[in-house]
């Protein structure tokens, strides 16, 4: 607040000044969580930096630079960039259906030679930006009118539908829920959520009845790709055994038998939380959850500190998505929800989600740096 | 605009509060779930985690050896040199097999099997390429092992019967555990062990528990794919006990080779201890073949052989004892006072009883005969007369006393009871009263009479030892090797007496001596000429097929062209030496036609060899004695 000049024109801050403004507490938290990940990847490889921990560190280092770069770029650039980014993401989603590389039975990647691009990940960020920009321009009265909601609903459902076609139900649901969270923060009436939820649930049995047997089977496999007893049932059972045998303080670092003897599936990716809870026990698991709670709190605090609706919605939207990742992953490995491939943010091995999350973190920091910016509701007037 | 934004901000803060609450609830749910799994249910999951990672592996104990009375190995465990291949350790299984094929012979079907199995099994599981390699082959592979990636050499144990066919019937064999075995004694976890072998026949079966030993176990940590990571604890099992037999492997071999191609059985027994020195049945089979699984061709050749190689003819086959039974008829006559040793019976060559004529084997008849001569010359009419004077149950009583009609205590698998008819037996089985006329057939060991060669040997032993109820045994009591010290007689050993008067016994034994030593004796040609080794005995020729009157008139019953299966059995029982007897012997040659011509020479040669080796007086060889006390030679 000290840096803001109330009612004054937008100020130009130097890059150095902006870096100083970055919320280093949050950066520290993010680094701490990522370090927990390094440690667990080191353990999962049987006490070796190879093959996971070292590569994860490099990715994190690159991602951290990217995050800071995004944080210091003028927020108005991101505001202007929101719709083009969204349009590009939709185009990429369409492109992936045409040119995409098939992997694990789904078309998700576009091969660009040196690296692959996963359009659904781009869309996760683009959707937040686009919705935030849309609602930034609406008054609270307008938000409460249904006709103003048709466009954002289409903005959510179009990419969700494309992603579902890939097929990637997990990401599609994540997009819908993230969009829903932004609508929620924007002030859409609660009864509309209740109605949407009811309608959604109501159509399931009807759709189910209309489907052929083979379609139903396809949907079941779609929902739960390994729905045989030795598949997902086995994974969840082994995960629960690992968690339960960890007890309060765990078996000790590098001592997790379930993970080290490979009873635990995907121990370095989706089930890394289990690896942690087996070796560090409930104490370790709760500590990590505590770190995540701090990140959620920072995220919401940044949203609340922002003096413009755009910043608030970007911060809250990303925080909401981050929370969804954490919650779904932990609920999945503890057997509360079916196995859907959602990684544990910043901890699970994997470059794509790491980049997406650090870009999101960059935007969150960006909102913090530009929290006192004056942004008119009508952009054509205010932005120069 | 400012006012408008503060409206939006107000809504936003409210929603943020709501969102925070929702988050708190969900995170609280996760924490509760963790508490439930990691604290409340923890014990259960700890057990499951250990069950996951710890495997109990049974360690098969080495099976006890079977030794002869001097410590010669009859059944032992041979090192089985095997070569295995592990897929994950080689770039190309085929290339490794090709190189291996330059060192040892690998048949095409073996190669196909290995390639198939390697694909089916997990990549770290060794697959057997060949086993029972010779030491040279094993060493050759070992030498070239740097050029053979993925090849693993392994020394396992497999049951080995170094005497092959010679001891097959007495010792039996081991084979894979069957469903029936599991049902019968399935409480031992060893039986579930893949590749475990259980005694299936003979002494291997009777003494299976003695030989088997107790399982050890090893707790190993395994990973999710079953690969062993390390051993956590190991409890060694207990090796099976050795079994020391009464057999003399050398005599056994001699008897086996002497019987040769015949379908025959021979039993030699120490008349004072009951030690069976030889128990041979021919033709035989190789017990080693059963250990690894009999090949179809070998099995067919065994099953298709009319001489029934799988049957233990010494104990599991019954024959009419024929004239070898006459000693007991004579004894019964003497003991019940229906005849005296000197009372003569006239033999005109036949006896008419009721509507039937009973013939003597000698067409012209023997004329007047007293008991000793009647035994020497095996006069049938004499014994028709003696048995006619006796009640069938009195004949049966004497037979029972001398060990007929009931299986011996050996309890060998398939051992038969033989048959000694009584009046009660006939009523029960045939529903008819006994006819006195039937006594006449019994009197010459025909009719319903049946005995195993083993029983006949016991009979001869009990006659020779002065009427003591010695029982045959195949296992040395206490498991001691022969030391040649204990030469006490049956009487001195406290063997119960059969309560036959020595005077009666002497008459019968004199008859038996006459059989081989008197010129009129039926086995004079087979007498033992070696000084001090002379044997006494009794021939027997038992009919397989009733001789009809017409056969007799046409002279058919001795014709060479009657089929083998219908020819008479040849029997001989004997003991030696005649002074201070020590050994009894019984020989049965199936369809050998004549006891004196086919069986007596075999008994003679076996008894000569037996006395030459003199197993009861010869101390055990020291080197075997040492390895016999629990030491496990290889």
Explain this structure.
The complex is a heterodimer of chains A (384) and B (634). Chain A is mostly helical. Chain A has a domain at 81-188. Chain A has 16 helices and 3 strands. Chain A has a 3-stranded antiparallel beta sheet with strand order 1-2-3. Chain B is of the alpha+beta class and 634 residues long. Chain B folds into 2 domains: 58-244, Alpha-Beta Complex (Penicillin-binding protein 2a (Domain 2)), CATH 3.90.1310.10; 249-300 and 307-613, DD-peptidase/beta-lactamase superfamily (Beta-lactamase). Chain B contains 23 helices and 19 strands. In chain B, the strands form 6 sheets. In chain B, strands 2, 3, 4, 5 and 10 form a 5-stranded mixed beta sheet that branches. In chain B, strands 12-11-19-18-17 form a 5-stranded antiparallel beta sheet. In chain B, strands 1-8-9 form a 3-stranded antiparallel beta sheet. In chain B, helix 13 packs antiparallel against helix 20 and helix 14 packs across helix 20 (502-517). The interface between A and B is large, with 48 and 41 residues.
Q: How many domains comprise the coordinates of chain B?
A: 2
- Assembly state here? heterodimer
Spatial order of the strands forming the largest sheet of chain A: 1-2-3
Tally of helical segments of chain B: 23
Based on DSSP secondary structure assignment, what is the total number of beta strands of chain A? 3
CATH architecture of the largest domain in chain B: 3-Layer(aba) Sandwich
Q: What is the molecular shape of chain B?
A: elongated
The chain-level structural class of chain A is mainly alpha
Rg of chain A, please? 22 Å
Provide the succession of SSEs of chain A: HHHHEEEHHHHHHHHHHHH
The helix fraction of chain A, in percent, is: 55-70%
What is the topology?
The complex is a heterodimer of chains A (384) and B (634).
Chain A: H1 15-21, H2 24-44, H3 53-72, H4 75-99, E1 101-103, E2 106-111, E3 116-117, H5 119-136, H6 140-143, H7 146-164, H8 169-186, H9 190-210, H10 213-223, H11 229-246, H12 257-260, H13 272-305, H14 309-333, H15 351-369, H16 379-382
Antiparallel strand pairs in A: 1-2, 2-3
Helix pairs in contact in A: 2-3, 2-13, 3-15, 4-5, 4-7, 5-7, 5-8, 5-14, 5-15, 7-8, 8-14, 11-13, 13-14, 13-15, 14-15
Chain B: H1 2-40, H2 42-53, E1 54-59, E2 66-67, E3 73-85, H3 93-103, H4 108-120, E4 127-133, H5 135-143, E5 151-160, H6 168-171, E6 174-176, H7 179-184, E7 197-199, H8 202-206, H9 208-212, E8 216-222, E9 228-235, E10 243-244, H10 249-259, E11 264-270, E12 276-282, H11 287-291, H12 296-304, H13 326-335, E13 345-347, E14 350-353, E15 356-359, E16 367-369, H14 371-377, H15 380-388, H16 392-401, H17 423-430, H18 436-443, H19 453-464, H20 502-517, E17 536-542, H21 549-554, E18 569-576, E19 583-589, H22 595-613, H23 622-628
Parallel strand pairs in B: 2-10
Antiparallel strand pairs in B: 1-8, 2-3, 3-4, 3-5, 6-7, 8-9, 11-12, 11-19, 13-16, 14-15, 17-18, 18-19
Helix pairs in contact in B: 10-22, 13-16, 13-20, 14-20, 15-18
